[in-house]
Amino acid sequence: MIFTLSETLTGSSKLTAKFADKHRKPWIHIHPGNVSELKPWLDRLEKDAVLNVAGSREPVQGPSIYEFTIEALLVAKA
Predict the structure, then answer these.
(1) Residues 73-77: what's their mean pLDDT?
(2) Burial of 14 by CB count in 10 Å (0-12 exposed, 13-18 middle, 19+ buried)?
(3) CA separation for the pair 78, 6 (Å, rounded)
(4) pLDDT tens, residue by residue, 28-64
(5) Residue 35 gets which letter from DSSP?
(6) Confidence (pLDDT) at 59
(7) What is the mean pLDDT of residues 7-13?
(8) Which stretches within 7-64 are classed as H helix?
(9) What are residue 46's phi and psi, to 5 degrees?
(10) Contact indicator for 26, 50 with CB cutoff of 8 Å
(11) Rounded CA separation 50/78 (Å)
């Protein structure tokens, strides 16, 4: 799972997606515009799947990636 506040992957988040592709690991990019896609994606995984959570660094100003990630996971859990 790659969490960002942008619809476009850049920098190390983009590199993480490429690494997952290279190793044939499932991944999803979650941003404020597609949070509803997280739960169905999680539901398709095996029950004992190990998840790697990656994403953007916390910005000095502006919205919090940490708060967004927690909220997205709580929505997916509901």
Answers:
(1) 91
(2) middle
(3) 24
(4) 999 999 999 999 999 999 889 888 888 888 777 778 8
(5) G
(6) 76
(7) 94
(8) 11-22, 38-44
(9) -65, 150
(10) no
(11) 20
Residue appearing with tokens 């499932």:
26
Average of per-residue pLDDT across 3-22: 95
Write down the pLDDT at residue 1.
95
State the residue for tokens 């990636």. Answer: 65
Measured CA to CA, the distance from residue 68 to residue 4 in angstroms comes to: 9
> Are residues 11 and 57 in contact, defined by beta-carbon separation less than 8 angstroms?
no
Please give the structure tokens belonging to residue 32.
């404020």
Percent of the chain with pLDDT over 90: 73
Q: Which helix (H) or strand (E) holds 76?
A: helix 65-77
The C-alpha atoms of residue 67 and residue 45 are separated, in whole angstroms, by 24
Dist. CA 14–CA 20, nearest whole Å: 10
